[in-house]
What does this fold into?
Amino acid sequence: MLCKLRHLHSQMRPQDTRKSNIVYNTLRSELQNQLPSGITVEQQLTEAAVTTATYNMVSRFLVASDIDEHANTMTPFPAADCQIRTIFIENGVTLNTFVAKHPEGDKKPWIVFVNSLLTDYSMWEGVMARLSAKYNILAYDQRGHGKSSVPQQPCTVEQLSDDIAKLLSQLNIPTPVRAVIGISQGGATTLSFAIRHPDKFEKIVACDTQIKSPEANRKAWDERIKLARREGMSALADATLPRWFPPGSQLVRGAQEHLVRPMIENTKLEGFVAGARALQGYDLSGGISEALKGKEALLIAGEKDGKLPEGLSKLAEQLKADGRDVSFYQVPNAGHLPVFLDNGLQEFVERVEAFLEE
It folds into this structure.
């Protein structure tokens, strides 16, 4: 009924001087022929008027209070002291950081979360909310993403991994941290961090990533950069979301449009380009085995994420053959970002939590 009322409003001509009468008389005649038993036309009209008035009042209140601007703001974790800070890294580079400190302070271990390309640190909200009850949390937006600055030139994976070490130093976080957890580009950053800073962590979790960039990826990233430059970030989101969440993968209801898409569209174009360049030609295969001596690693991939599950599974087997403590876990019915799973987020968090406590 409300939809019908709106439709009638939309059909009115600007020159009509008795708009209300036109709308209600038209609606009255339509309702007269389809009244439920025991319901009068006046009751139906009253319900329509009250519903419309309430909708208009609420919509105006939301606009006036700027609620939409804060729709994607993370809710502070009840058991932690949460702070957001901008940290200077080097000339032209500042990183937006989120710290959730446990009431017991540094008596609790620290965990670092590293976001993927085209997202920001809030992608980890569901995981961080669970783990903040036992750990101190550091999350941040990688260069060019979220509210971090856009680098003046393309990044390298090595630079991105060094950013973690600089953040730990700037924020006076004691090392080694319990774990660094990264996904996609953040997973490559995490693997590089393990190689370049083996004294600063105990465990790593690398999700939906690769130990080296396939040659074919160079052309693929060039094409995606051209698309973004030519048609904008919304067009890139249209092309990216089906790859991240292919048929058969699960996704939190509404998350594709209301959580993930805005992250992609709000990523600064040159920030995306700088990050994509980092993924075009890196190779970490030569140093990862040595870096994981005496450490523990968990490699995770969504079941539906193309060839990545197979690649990470093989990497785990190679590292185990070298005597490294490495395991692989495949998340059922997941695409490229398992942290957005429908009903599977709990499973993902429990697997990571169990690994952290082993």
Remarks:
- The beta strands are 81-90, 93-101, 110-114, 136-140, 177-183, 201-207, 296-302, 325-331.
- The domain at 81-357 is CATH 3.40.50.1820 (Rossmann fold).
- Residues 98 and 151 are 20 Å apart (CA to CA).
- DSSP finds 13 helices and eight strands in the chain.
